[in-house]
Amino acid sequence: MEQETLADAELITQAINSPVDPDAKIVEFIKKHRFSALVDGVCMGVGFVFLILGLAMPMLMAQQLIPGLLLIIGAILCLAAGAILEVYQWAKLD
Asked: pTM for the complete prediction?
């Protein structure tokens, strides 16, 4: 947490000291992080919903085994995509 705060503070300091409009750079920096957090949240949220449905459907109805397994596969893909995007964002911060 402290490393993230230090990295953000350092980037903001660099943006303020640059000859280009510092407010525009800070706003762009914040927009980029917000969009990345939104994409991460959507991927992870959809993945968790698929996972819960994939586990619940076969328990409720025995005929729903195949759709339940497909939902679990979709959940794994969505959760992996969200995790990869989050790791990529963390790697860009350092």
From this structure: 0.63
User: DSSP letter at 94?
Assistant: -
Q: pLDDT, tens digit, for every residue of 34-91? A: 887 888 888 899 999 999 999 998 888 888 888 899 999 999 999 999 888 888 877 7
CA separation (Å) from 9 to 1, 30, 93?
12, 12, 11
Task: Compute the chain's Rg from CA coordinates.
Answer: 20
Count of CB atoms situated within 10 Å of the CB of 57:
19
Q: Under 8 Å CB-to-CB from 83, ≥6 apart: which residues?
A: 44
Q: Which of 25, 26, 32, 69 is nearest to 51 (CA)?
A: 69
Identify the band that residue 6 occupies on the pLDDT scale cut at 50, 70 and 90. Answer: low
The Cα diameter of the chain in Å comes to: 66
Tokens of 14: 């660099």
